[in-house]
Amino acid sequence: MVNQDRIVNEFVELISIDSLSLKERNMADLLKNRLSDMGFDVYEDDAGIKTGGNCGNIIGEKKGNKNVPAILLMAHMDTVTPGINKKANIKGDIIRSDGTTILGGDDVAGIVSILEALRVLAENNEEYGDIQVAFTIGEEVGLIGAKNLDYSKIHAKYCFVMDSGGDIGLVAITAPSQNKIDIVVKGKAVHAGLEPEKGVNAIAIAAHAISQMKLGRIDDETTANIGIINGGNATNIICDRVELKAEARSRCDNKLKSQTNHMKQCFLDAADKFGGEIEFKDELMYPSFKINEDDDIIGILKNASEKCGIKLVLEATGGGSDTNIVNSKGIQAVDVSVGMDKVHSVEEQISIGDLVKAASFLVEIVKAVK
What we know:
Alpha-Beta Plaits; 2 domains; 33% helix; metal-binding; hydrolase; Aminopeptidase; five-stranded antiparallel beta sheet; elongated
């Protein structure tokens, strides 16, 4: 049985550790010790060296006593900003930050659900197969920990990533690919008061391109956004350079390609109309994935949900996570809710009841593998 006091105390302890992206050293050292204390063989890979971080991913493995496929339990160690000097305020069933920082439940909630589930399995002398654990770096800055994980150490058939919000029992089984898009619009600078007709306004080009562009919700699988625009030096100079950062996402690769090409064409047409130039670069940040409802991992989830009385809800998500990367490595992976709410904001919160339910669900997931 999950120990509520223990999981809450550990949650409060871990969120007090500063663990910004690529600065997860203190969190990593603590988690290495926790896993070692539970009898895991622990290994730190070289992802930090490859990415400029101060530590690598933490990988643990414990041999099971049951002849079933190995599983991988996964959560990320890093948080977004503002994430320094985080403090937990508990009122009733809800844990919040003090309002000046994020709480850090994304993804400390995932970490403690894994640690507590492992303790419960050991305390109850449950039978289970080999368990691998990966606590990754840099998830919030492009999934770079998962991308650089030492997969030569991983032999799991199934992966349960504990890194989603919503009701406990909500599981993401399909997610989109994302293209990161960088655009530079080039015009011609002249004095805006003396001879504006001789200039080419890069802002006007960018504005026209965006006005012709399909953005936001394109369809039920596809979204697109212009997120950052920088340009101009003074009001008396026709702007000759605008830099934009954008993205496109889709759970259908052909739709992603089509949307990206559409955005590029809008900029090309606008540059041609006004006499400017553009540079357009797109980069795939992560691939899409789709788990079918008749796949074995769904059977595991269904059996676990029945055992603990938690309603299983399979969903398609518009976000990316380490789950995308793990699936691309040939491991069936799903993203499991741990109840985090209002993440990436100073209003972030989580309920104690959801922490307990998330760990309980994970215990049954491990037991249901066959």
